[in-house]
TrEMBL record:
CDD domains: MMP_TTHA0227_like_1 (cd12954). Residues 15-25 have a biased composition (Basic residues). InterPro entries: Zincin_1, Zincin_1_sf. Pfam families: Zincin_1. This is Metallopeptidase family protein.
Length: 150
């Protein structure tokens, strides 16, 4: 009697190799996790957004209670939430139903506009202040009086 071969009839396959082709094995991290060099640009950017939010929460804590701050790499392209072809640097999503208001900062557009880390930190702070100003329906100068001086 003839039957079709099944996968169970195949000989067992060896386990996948855990070493590279030169036999050195997997490489470890380039820098230990407790050193600043271990942090990626993404986590460093997240810290800049958190720093900006904490600066504002010191002054506007009650008004910002429950507001979420988030980071996305790029703004959505379809549908485009901006006009005149300008790429947004941040966006405010007002509260809807049980969802709290959310301030989103877009990492890649900000990184391309800032040539170094100190200017990036200032730009991130400015974007967060502008979005919080939209949320509270105030002028950005009222949200952070030092912003006009910078």
């Amino acid at each position: 009697m003839l039957r079709r071969p099944s996968p169970a009839d195949d000989p067992p396959r060896p386990a996948p190799r855990r070493r590279d082709r030169r036999g050195r094995g997997l490489r470890g991290p380039l820098a230990p996790t407790d050193l600043p060099a271990h942090r990626t640009r993404r986590t460093q950017f997240d810290d800049l957004v958190l720093d900006a939010a904490e600066r504002l929460e010191q002054r506007w804590g009650r008004e910002l209670d429950g507001v979420e701050f988030a980071v996305e790499d790029v703004p959505p392209s379809d549908p485009a939430p901006w006009e005149r072809g300008e790429v947004p640097l941040g966006r405010l999503f007002p509260a809807q139903g049980s969802l709290p208001p959310r301030v989103v900062v877009y990492r890649r557009p900000l990184e391309t506009r800032a040539p170094d880390r100190s200017l990036l930190a200032a730009l991130v702070h400015e974007v967060v202040v502008e979005q919080v100003a939209h949320l509270l329906d105030l002028d950005p100068g009222q949200i952070d009086p030092g912003l006009a001086d910078d």
